[in-house]
Amino acid sequence: MDRDALDEVYAGDFDGFVARRDELAKRLRSEGDREGADAVKALKKPNQPAWALNQLAPKQRERLLKAGAALREAQERLVAGDADPDDLREATDAERTAVSEALGAASALAGQAGTSLSEPATERARQTLHAVALDEEVRAEFERGRLTSDHDAPGLGELALGAVQPSGKGRERRKKQSAEREQAKQRRDKLKAAEAEAKKLDARREDAEREVQAARKDAERAQHALERATERLEQAAAAAQQADERLAGLRQD
Questions:
Q1: Residues of the chain with pLDDT under 50
Q2: How do residues 188-236 score in pLDDT, each as one tens digit?
Q3: What angle do CA 15, 40, 127 make, to 5 degrees?
Q4: What one-character-per-residue DSSP string does 118-184 give?
Q5: Residue among 81, 74, 85 at smallest CA distance from 167
Q6: Where are the alpha helices (DSSP H) in the chain?
Q7: Which residue from 46, 164, 166, 237 has the highest number of Cβ atoms inside 10 Å of its Cβ?
């Protein structure tokens, strides 16, 4: 299968993924590569966070992969007793910096492509970038630009840090990191709750708009009925007056 053509499928704009995928499958089938065509046709469209990360340039991906590798090495050395906890903290900080840089680049690329990431989508992309360091499957997909969904990040650095007795500064740092993660979780929960409430309010607004439209139609029908009744009343009153005038004339005769 043409890897460059497959790269173009994943690297193109978000909305056009299915069209590019199907076009490639059609071309492969016409060339007699039925197996390749079936494989391409079965490709799942990436969700928005995964798509944005697939747009990163190779050098940007490489920086994050190196930072992740350094973090894994620091964890392994610490567990083996060959490193100080400060080494792991330095590797963790470097990995977080690489994640922030990659996330900023991916967000910018998504915005330039007209598919800006929402705050929840940006957070999911961040968690996926962290997962690259410690999840081999996610790392392989990220390295090839083939992510199809976002992923939860394992507890970065916590396993290795737990294998040794941290210093006083280390305990404070872990406490601060735990608080930051809890705050991030609370922000995500608030965002989800706000989105759910917004959907409910939108549904109520739509219901109210339908009720207003129905009421307006009822009012228009009532107005038309009133106008017709008024016209009949005026006609009846005029006819009655004419009858009264004829009766009065007959009485005088």
A1: 156-167
A2: 888 888 888 888 888 888 888 888 888 888 888 989 888 988 888 889 8
A3: 55
A4: PHHHHHHHHHHHHHHHH-HHHHHHHHHT---S--PPP-TTHHHHTTS---HHHHHHHHHHHHHHHHH
A5: 85
A6: 3-11, 17-30, 34-41, 48-54, 58-79, 85-112, 119-134, 136-144, 158-161, 168-252
A7: 46
